[in-house]
Amino acid sequence: MNKRKPPAIPAGRLQSLPASRARHTKHAPWRCHALLAFTAMGTAFAATDPALAHGFAGKRFFPATLATDDPFVADELSLPTISSRKLPPDGDNPATRETDFSIDVSKRVTDNLGIGFGATYKRLAPDGGDAQRGFDNLAASVKYKFYQSDEHETILSAGIDWDIGNSGSKRVGAESFSTFTPTLFFGKGFGDLPADMKYLRPFAVTGLVGYGIPSRASTTTTSDEGEDTIERHPHTLQWGLAVEYSLPYLQSFVQDVGIREPFNRMIPVVEFAMSTALDRGASGTTGTMNPGIIWAGQYVQLAVEAVIPVNSRSGNRTGWIAQVHFFLDDLFPTSIGRPIFRK
């Protein structure tokens, strides 16, 4: 887990963005100043060579994505991931502005096995009501890379995410039950396309397919009047895709088309983070489409994306998410950026 990214909103109930999982901002000047600060930080860390260890299959560099976890096992830190979005009314609940601040860290145990942890602080500001603040449930994960082809720029990994029930604040909607999500991750670059398709070679896709398993089938709450309300928790299919076009790959391995700093380090991306409810009276798919830009330096990555609901059940307002992501395996290759156990 390279960060706690925002999972797609489970069908039948609107969930918040993180923070990956991904992620306050009322004032446009604050956002502008933050993005300028991110850019300045990235420039300070820039180097002439691409990242040395993180996210490679052959010549292909796969960036860390915000809404769908990438397939790599790496030492990395997302600090912070900030997101903001207006959630639509849900039952008796009014429309609510949700803002999330997240931190996520991943650590390699071996070259191919890694663990991750994430925490998200949430602010919920309902229309006409008082804002609520608190931590969402903690997140933990394990991921194992079991296949890599440098020639075909392909990688496959498997893992499991654990949303740790009852570890967060109920006032911001943290669940009292856990959810376990076994997941298959994949990445494929198209650098092996024939010469007459050379301008398609910078394209790459990453994605995931997971099965969400709640630790409890339902939750019963009793009102002050003694009436019981039963909320059922369905199994879910978690699936996502990221389509990337790497300008660094275009410049270095296809053709130098004259793109200069800082634009030659940019990777336009469109992510799709989706969730489909499968049983227990719930059905349908919800999620978001996230178009954005990733700037990848040697030691740090900066990213910003729009968060666009894919249908009315997912909401009707566009939000945003931004992240500063550090490659610890490149920053500290001989200390904390090394696997705990090496071959």
Here the CATH topology equals: Lipocalin
> Average pLDDT value?
86
Distance separating the two termini: 22 Å
How many helical stretches?
3
In CATH terms, the superfamily is Autotransporter beta-domain
Structure characterization notes:
By secondary structure, the protein is mostly beta strands. It has one domain (28-331): Lipocalin (Beta Barrel), CATH 2.40.128. It is 9% helix and 45% strand. The chain has 3 helices and 17 strands. The strands form 3 sheets. It has a 12-stranded antiparallel β-barrel. Strands 1-2 form a two-stranded antiparallel ribbon. A two-stranded antiparallel sheet has the order 11-12. The longest helix is centred in the first third of the chain and has 18 residues, at 28-45. The chain starts with 27 loop residues before the first helix and ends in a 12-residue tail after the last helix.
Question: Helix and strand layout, with pairings?
Answer:
Elements: H1 28-45, E1 56-57, E2 60-61, E3 76-87, E4 96-108, E5 113-126, E6 132-135, E7 139-149, E8 154-163, E9 179-189, E10 203-214, E11 218-222, E12 228-232, E13 236-245, H2 247-254, E14 266-277, E15 285-296, E16 300-309, E17 319-327, H3 328-331
